[in-house]
Design goal:
Length: 222
């Protein structure tokens, strides 16, 4: 199945709200477990999450790493409004900071340019990008030694498999979410494609591994 790009931003209020209300506990828990497993005992001071959505993962990491400042980045205003609400409800406004940034379309915000980051993460952003280099170029400019963990969907071999994945993991979700999930699977890259992207960006030393029936993980040190 050839890749079919989808819109880069989830900026429709109904779309963002459906995403925020959906049950992503299983993949988000997996991501945090993989991050902790790849960097055991690590105690970062600055965490950058690219494509934070409604901020579930930034909040999980802020609670696990109470010494860390977490910068939650997204290009969609609708998502950031929901992220702000979640951060405020958790009482973590002093340590989790929302930043609007459309990667590849805008320069890095000044608030990030002067920030010390020792962990950079991303979950489910890569497949939204028409130009994956927009993500890898940010990682390539991080200081040497920065811990990196990027999890994303993998494109299934055919549409029948894509529809089966949607039914298995989102069969009870609203139609808008099932539609977006299918589009995301069709827009996702495959591990071999990601390895090529990393080599072109000078990040070929990062590890790419399949971690579920629909997810891959890129990890290592910058």
């Amino acid at each position: 199945m050839e890749r079919v790009p989808e819109p880069e931003l989830m900026d429709e209020p109904v779309q963002a709200l459906a995403y925020a209300r959906a049950d992503f506990d299983e993949p988000n828990t997996l991501f945090v477990q993989l991050l902790e497993g790849r960097f055991p005992g690590y105690t970062p001071r600055g965490v950058l999450d690219l494509g934070c959505g409604p901020a579930d993962i930034p909040l999980r990491l802020a609670q696990r790493w109470p010494q860390a400042q977490v910068f939650a980045v997204d290009g969609a205003e609708a998502m950031l409004r929901l992220a702000h609400e979640a951060i405020r409800a958790a009482g973590l406004e002093s340590r989790v900071h929302c930043v609007r940034w459309h990667l590849g379309r805008e320069p890095m915000p000044e608030v990030l340019a002067g920030t010390s980051i020792d962990v950079c993460i991303s979950n489910s952003l890569l497949h939204h990008l028409r130009e994956p280099a927009a993500l890898w170029e940010v990682l390539a400019k991080l200081p040497r030694g920065t811990a990196v963990a990027v999890m994303d969907l993998m494109r299934p071999p055919d549409m029948d498999r894509a529809r089966a994945i949607v039914q298995t993991y989102a069969g009870e979700e609203p139609e808008v979410l099932r539609r977006d999930f299918l589009h995301s699977l069709c827009a996702a890259y495959r591990p071999g494609e990601v390895r090529q992207q990393l080599r072109r960006s000078g990040l070929g030393h990062l590890q790419v591994e399949v971690v579920s029936d629909r997810h891959m993980l890129v990890s290592g040190r910058r």
